Amino acid sequence: MDPCPYVRIAVGDLALNLPHKPHLSFYSKFKLRGFPSQLSDLPCGGAVDARIHACFTLSKSELEKLVEKSAKFSCLKIKIYRRSCDEGSGCGLVMKSSKMLGCVEVQLDVKSIVESSGCNRVCPIRSRWIPIRSGADVKLHLNVRAEPDPRFVFQFDGEPECSPQIFQINGNLLKQPVFTCKFTFRNCSQRNSRSRCSISTSGGDVREERKGWSITIHDLSGSPVAAASMVTPFVPSPGADSVGRSNPGSWLILRPGYSAWKPWGRLEVWRESANVCYRFELIPDGSVDAIPLASSNVSAKNGGKFVVDITTGPTPMASPSSSFDFSSGCGSSSASGSGSWAHLLYRGFVMSSTVRGVKPVVEVGVQHVTCTEDAAAFVALAAAMDLSMDACRLFSQKLKKELRQPDLF
């Protein structure tokens, strides 16, 4: 399998030198045209925080388009904000009461980035102290560099519930079939009674019960290489019309064992207002405890991307008790046992998949694929997340016919 070339622009080693005011709290906002803004806490006092604070990923075609555009399209802007006293720590939102201290602009040499990517080399962009405001002794330290980030790219040839073929998109954008998938309802013989596959509400309405969904990934020889099985049904919370956080629906992502399927990961999904929230945990071999790898949300209406990225964001690598060493590319953590093992095995970009699309696209970091079963497990996870978007629809809404159990047609 040939990967597709990607490049990530990583910003790390941040520090703010603000003489005589080390007690103040600051955060930074990163903006590159065409990408959503990213936020990160900013240490004050001159000590460098050796981790990745922001990361922007570009495909080869996106880089080539930037080469043809004016310099303003390849300018990375970093705005520094001071928090007000009542905002506390954390940088989930840019508060109206925040005061901008200054702005730093870093011009990306896109041609050099493209050349380095073609040679599979890191391209240093900027690594030094930069004055934030003229005439003031306020400086920002940063390290900006471009790194090759090749990925295997797969695309479903239809919605997962329609059991489509799955193609790999090669570096030259050619498609070749690599997997097939089969969507089924488990325990079909037990579904002869309408009461077993429906939910009666207090108002007397009968709605489809979203349970027993399963999807199996096969290689081209027909052998099963991964599966996703709904183990906790998606049911409405008491007095509500949607799946709640207190009782999320869940899937087990399965890989072939010696004589039976073995669990590899658990995906939990629920709905909060207009968002579908998810949490993905890894289940290490022989371990009782699951290890959280991703937790976020996407729009219930418009979809978005399901992402597992142990670089920035609310993941074990970016938690207060652990960090990502920007200079060495290694994770460090005070935790021990299976958690540390997972940090060593999964780091950097792991995977992403589009949801709410007609043909979901799955990207997987090459360092996480050593065999066909590795790739298939991520594809099964992507399918489970896509199906969960339908499972999290309001129960007053009707499901697609492919997702409605046969005796409810």
TrEMBL record:
Which InterPro entries does the entry link to?
DUF1005 (IPR010410)
Taxonomy, superkingdom:
Eukaryota
Record's protein name: Formin-like protein 18
**UniProt organism field:** Salvia splendens
